[in-house]
Amino acid sequence: MAGVTVLAMLIVGAASLGAAEYYTGRPQFCGSCHVMDPYYESWSHDLHGAKIGARCIDCHYAPGERLTFRAKFKGLSQVASYFSGRYGAGRPRAHVADESCLTSPCHGDERFMAKKLPVGQLHIEKRIIEGHETEIERAPTVSFYHEKHLHIDDKLTGVQKELETVTARLRNAIPGADFDRVIDLTRSVAPAHQRTATLDFALKELDLSAEVCDDAHQLLQLEHRHTRLKQLDGVSCATCHNYDPSGENHIAVHVQNCFTCHFTNEGFNEGAGECLKCHEPPTRTVFVHGGEGANEGASVLMDHRDLVARKVDCSSCHLDVIRGASTVSIRECQHCHDSDRFLGGFETRTTETVEKYHEEHVAHQRARCDDCHQSVSHALLDPMRVTTTGFLEPVLNDCQHCHPGHHTEQVQMLSGVGGAGVTGQTPNAMLGSRLNCRACHVQSAADDKGESVVKASEQSCVACHSQDYARLFEQQQDEIAAAMREAKGMLARLEERLATEPDALTSADRDMLEVARKNIRFVEIAGGMHNKHFAVQLLDAARRDLAELEARLASPQ
Description:
Layout: H1 2-24, H2 27-30, H3 37-44, H4 47-52, H5 56-60, H6 69-84, H7 98-101, E1 117-119, E2 123-129, E3 132-138, E4 142-144, H8 146-150, H9 153-173, H10 176-186, H11 192-206, H12 210-233, H13 237-240, E5 241-243, E6 251-253, H14 255-263, E7 286-290, E8 299-302, H15 304-309, H16 315-318, E9 322-323, H17 330-334, H18 340-343, H19 351-364, H20 369-372, E10 377-378, H21 393-396, H22 399-402, H23 408-415, E11 441-446, E12 452-456, H24 458-464, H25 468-500, H26 507-526, H27 532-554
Antiparallel strand pairs: 1-4, 2-3, 5-6, 7-8, 9-10, 11-12
Helix pairs in contact: 9-12, 10-11, 10-12, 11-12, 12-19, 23-26, 24-25, 25-26, 25-27, 26-27
């Protein structure tokens, strides 16, 4: 009798477990919890739920995972959270493993890899054409290919080989500590224009050949590309295919993720942000403006394909399409990490550090782009606004575009570097005291064209020191001017002599003359008052070399 009872209990228990397994595996069970309402609703009318009939457990458990102890304990933890009152306090974050997507009934054939997928929808926009508001159709110009983003092993191997080759050339060309400095700069994760400008400054200071400088810039680009490819190496289906918060679909591609990958720390139309990597030129002609003069009735049209063929820069018309910067600040890290051991190397991070960040957070912990990166928008400005001056703001706010590195020499002079013939670094005494350009440049003035500028004035010295510094300011100006006049006079006499006797100097003497000429030019451009002592040292070196050359010409061997 006892055996029958035990057998009956086993049968009832097994039946109960089977029934529970069946019931809890139904989508309706997931939807019975109120915090799951939006997810269940979006699934019910999504392609996966309404047409294919895929259940929650088909996707949210990897093949073979559902009946494991690990899966059951995860389910029990959710039950415990529910009855303890903690469930719903945080955002549900279910994960879909790649193995679930790539099962044979779903995407196992991988036909999607080579399939051309248009990004965006045909839409109508309003434009002002010949003074009239007009509606025009705009078709998407971006197509996506999975294989281009996922089959990257060969690309990664090629970039690694190039990195090794260029690094070896630089190691042979640049000695010891200077090589380490250049390598560190090429691994910078600063915005594109900033890391390029910093590298340029260092290369100019080290006075390296053009070939070595080209290699350094190539290494900078290769390091950045290597990091991009390593990031792609760790992506999964869920990196791009996330829950759709609008509820229109259960899963959708968030194009914001595309913008984060393509535009983070990239220059406009450069690197991963190159326009034609994603966009195809529109095939229809575009209205530019109405006719003028004798052709007043005729419209001026433009074909993008023609401009692409002529290599017209996209930024000429489309600099407004990228707004914001998808940077990562330490505040994003502090949302999850409250210990210094996790944050210690953040401010000094390099491309290698960023690769490790992505491997740990994206590949291992399934972090999403917007968990760490700030958002960046990518879209044409409202066509109705293009006719206003606000359209020009992106250019007007980017001084570096029209004035690239115009203050490089001034910064070098302040730092006590640049020029030749002076040993050691002689920075301006005020450079380390937190003083910046605005401390001295306080006086409104006009340049040679009558444009407004802000010039330095002795009154800025007086404001911080005393009235005596106004007199000191004039004395230093006079000293630099006198040294400059003498150096220029000596240079002019030598050049006048060489005009009639071009073979009077040897090749080594001509190199010495060129160094003196560069020192004079450098002090003139940089402004000697940015570092009086260093400026005088450079002019002294120039005068010394010029005097030696004059002496050789006066008593030829």
